[in-house]
Amino acid sequence: QMPGTARHDREMAIQAKRNLCKATDPVERLRLRCLARGSAGIKGLGRVFQIMDDDNSRTLDFKEFVKGLNDYAMMIDKEEAQEIFRIFDKDGSGTIDFDEFLVTLRPPMSNARKEIIMQAFRKLDKSGDGVITIEDLRGVYNAKHHPKYQNGDWTEDQVFRAFLDNFDSPYDKDGKVTTEEFMNYYAGVSASIDTDVYFIIMMKNAWKL
């Protein structure tokens, strides 16, 4: 199993559902609704917005915003949606910038956590071009221990691809993982871990840093 993925994902989803009952802040509630779907939940919402952004303006008006939430099956009443939209539409232009929206929605992380995530990224990004690909993984990740490789179900490349799919945007799996996708993924995992120390130990063990 991948470093800190499945188990943390489950724990985090359960924790997010629990916290949702107590949360009153609309942005926090939307964040928890996304995290209840696992580490890739926030990224998934971003992907829905991206698909809707026909004119590539990287902005959404209120109608698009609500449609995106509905497409992603986020059950939010209109008042709450309006409140969230207003928070993000800082200049009152009637549109929100969805990159800004996703960064704000991402659970905040300390610099210590960001730094260890970047260390793991750099270790995997063998070629140093800021994108992790199957080629990069050949040098760092041993597929031969994977049960599906051992029983002949998967080739080495399929093991690598499944590994990358963990971190890739849910609706846009291209077999490449950018710094942002990696960071987004671990922002999700990070949300389920209370202390920096534990998060850093987990990352060091997972990635042998």
From TrEMBL:
<dbReference type="InterPro" id="IPR002048">
    <property type="entry name" value="EF_hand_dom"/>
</dbReference>
<dbReference type="GO" id="GO:0005509">
    <property type="term" value="F:calcium ion binding"/>
</dbReference>
<protein>
    <submittedName>
        <fullName>CAPSL protein</fullName>
    </submittedName>
</protein>
<dbReference type="InterPro" id="IPR011992">
    <property type="entry name" value="EF-hand-dom_pair"/>
</dbReference>
<feature type="domain" description="EF-hand">
    <location>
        <begin position="40"/>
        <end position="75"/>
    </location>
</feature>
<dbReference type="InterPro" id="IPR051581">
    <property type="entry name" value="Ca-bind"/>
</dbReference>
<feature type="domain" description="EF-hand">
    <location>
        <begin position="112"/>
        <end position="147"/>
    </location>
</feature>
<keyword id="KW-0106">Calcium</keyword>
<dbReference type="InterPro" id="IPR018247">
    <property type="entry name" value="EF_Hand_1_Ca_BS"/>
</dbReference>
<dbReference type="Pfam" id="PF13499">
    <property type="entry name" value="EF-hand_7"/>
</dbReference>
<keyword id="KW-0677">Repeat</keyword>
<keyword id="KW-0479">Metal-binding</keyword>
<feature type="domain" description="EF-hand">
    <location>
        <begin position="76"/>
        <end position="111"/>
    </location>
</feature>
